[in-house]
Amino acid sequence: MISFSKEDIFLVTGASSGIGRASALQLNELGASVIITGRRQEKLQEVKDEAVNSENIFIESRDLAVDIDSHAEWVIELSKKYGKLKGLVLSAGVSFVKPLSIVDYSSLKTAQDILLNAQIMLIKGFSNRKAHTGQSSVVIIASDAALYGVKGLLEYSSAKAALITAGKVMANELYSRSIRVNTISPGLILTPMVEESVKKGETNADAVQYAGKPEYVANMVSFLLSEKACWITGQNIIIDGGNSLPNIHNKF
Known about the structure:
Elements: E1 9-13, H1 18-29, E2 33-37, H2 41-50, E3 57-59, H3 71-82, E4 85-90, H4 105-127, E5 132-141, H5 154-174, E6 179-186, H6 192-199, H7 214-225, E7 236-239
Parallel strand pairs: 1-2, 1-4, 2-3, 4-5, 5-6, 6-7
Helix pairs in contact: 1-7, 3-4, 4-5
């Protein structure tokens, strides 16, 4: 069984909803202390109020799309405030759905900044010896859209694909510092972002019947952060309910 102590401190981005929220709540339930961050203070407070051990949830609201170059120092400052971090969960994200015909440099740069560059800067800060405990772990939430050519997701998919590759590079670089780095590529997960996408007609409503729950991904997050995954690094783990397999749902 996976368990943590309150001395095990994790930073979870995108913790106000979806996979980030589920991961933060599960880590807290397993005994860890969790710093949760997101743009909306009131949503973060809801997570804290829902937590089993709410006294070990700490709110630090921050917009990761702003002042990206300062993220590394921010992580170091958090470690000074709360103690060295045992792990980092990067779950913050935003949907980018548009056809190639209306993609421009500005929108490409925005997607890269939010989905790739901000994540790298956060890991840079975490990798500083002042920030992490050693024998620590980074889990990056990517997407299976990075692996398959889903139309309309050029900006999103290309940024996530780069993120998966960046994760492998950082796993190689940070191994000597006893930091493991892995990515998880979920399939369609029923999050508020996906629900909004369905309302806008950007996501096929019929596909939602096969969508997974955020908790399915949170289970893998907790495992990869634990000592039970001590020999796993540089991997991209697909969690999609078999959706990548031909005719999988016809078998059930």
